[in-house]
Each structure stands twice: as structure tokens, then as C-alpha cells.
């Protein structure tokens, strides 16, 4: 199945469980793979027939600016549900990394997979 990708998208948001984290904005780095059949868009060379990675990236930025969750789990889960609903994404995997949260690690975070691939057609358009 085809995928539309967003890799290493950097956002700033209020995120964290500790008091000191509630008063600052921290960077999250995100990767998304979103399933869709790209053949209709390619055949017509038409953005309206695929997932617009620029529009989705902009929506993620707005979500991050407005959110203030404690856990990266909550950030990922709420954002995935919102993106699936607003953009009609049948299946996605999202990785949310919080660089610097554990100094000994390059990054820590979560990866979630939501939705079903069964609704994405493999048949030629
Ligand atoms: N599974 C998680 N573990 C931790 C989280 C989290 O969001 N998910 N958050 C923290 C703190 O906010 C940490 O990032 C501060 O350095 C600790 N563990």
C-alpha cells in the first residue's frame, strides 16, 4: 500500500509531567506514514486526489501550539484521531520523539499505529 510521508517534523508545545515542564515549550520531532492510494493523484497530477502533506504539517503545528498535555502518549493519540477525522486518513503510524528528555538517549517517545488498511483500495483506479 502506498504511503504519504512526513519525516522529522519539528513542533514546539507544552509537554511534560513535571512542574518545570508546565511553564516552557519543548521540541517534539515527529514522523508520520499515512496510507492512501496515490495512483489517482499521479494519473491526474492533482493534489486533491491525495493526502496533502503540507496541509497536514500545518495542522500538526496548530495542534501543537494549542495543546498542553503531560504525556507524549496523549499528544500522539489525540493528534492521530484528529488527523484521521479531518483528513480522512484510513491508517497511519505516528512516531513522536522528545529529544533531550533522557540525556543519555538521543530521543525517547512513542510510536502508534491507528486505523485499518482494509479500507484502502489496492485495485487500479
Ligand atoms: N512513557 C512516558 N514516560 C515519560 C513521559 C511521557 O510522556 N511518556 N514523560 C516524562 C517527563 O515529562 C520527561 O519527559 C521529563 O524529562 C517522563 N516519562
Automatic annotation (TrEMBL):
- Give yes or no: UniProt keyword Lyase: yes
Name the catalysed reactions: 7,8-dihydroneopterin = 6-hydroxymethyl-7,8-dihydropterin + glycolaldehyde
Q: What InterPro entries does the record point to?
A: Dihydroneopterin_aldolase, FolB_dom, GTP-CH-I_C/QueF
Domain Dihydroneopterin aldolase/epimerase span(s) in chain numbering = 4-114
Please name the pathway.
Answer: Cofactor biosynthesis; tetrahydrofolate biosynthesis; 2-amino-4-hydroxy-6-hydroxymethyl-7,8-dihydropteridine diphosphate from 7,8-dihydroneopterin triphosphate: step 3/4
Gene Ontology molecular function terms on file = dihydroneopterin aldolase activity
The source's superkingdom equals Bacteria
- What is the E.C. number? 4.1.2.25
The enzyme class is lyase
Q: Which keywords appear in this protein's UniProt record, sorted alphabetically?
A: Folate biosynthesis, Lyase
Family membership: Belongs to the DHNA family.
Briefly state the protein's biological role: Catalyzes the conversion of 7,8-dihydroneopterin to 6-hydroxymethyl-7,8-dihydropterin.
Q: What is this protein called?
A: 7,8-dihydroneopterin aldolase
Q: Which organism is it from?
A: Cobetia amphilecti
Amino acid at each position: 500500500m502506498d504511503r504519504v510521508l512526513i519525516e522529522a517534523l519539528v513542533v514546539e508545545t507544552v509537554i511534560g509531567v513535571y512542574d518545570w515542564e508546565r511553564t516552557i515549550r519543548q521540541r517534539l520531532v515527529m514522523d508520520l506514514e499515512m496510507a492512501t492510494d496515490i495512483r489517482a493523484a499521479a494519473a491526474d497530477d492533482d493534489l486533491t486526489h491525495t493526502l496533502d502533506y503540507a496541509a497536514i504539517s500545518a495542522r500538526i503545528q496548530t495542534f501543537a501550539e494549542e495543546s498542553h498535555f503531560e504525556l507524549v502518549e496523549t499528544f500522539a493519540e489525540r493528534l492521530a484521531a484528529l488527523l484521521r477525522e479531518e483528513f480522512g486518513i484510513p491508517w497511519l503510524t505516528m512516531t513522536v520523539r522528545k529529544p533531550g528528555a533522557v540525556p543519555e538517549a538521543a530521543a525517547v517517545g512513542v510510536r502508534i499505529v491507528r486505523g485499518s488498511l482494509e479500507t484502502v483500495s489496492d485495485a487500479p483506479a
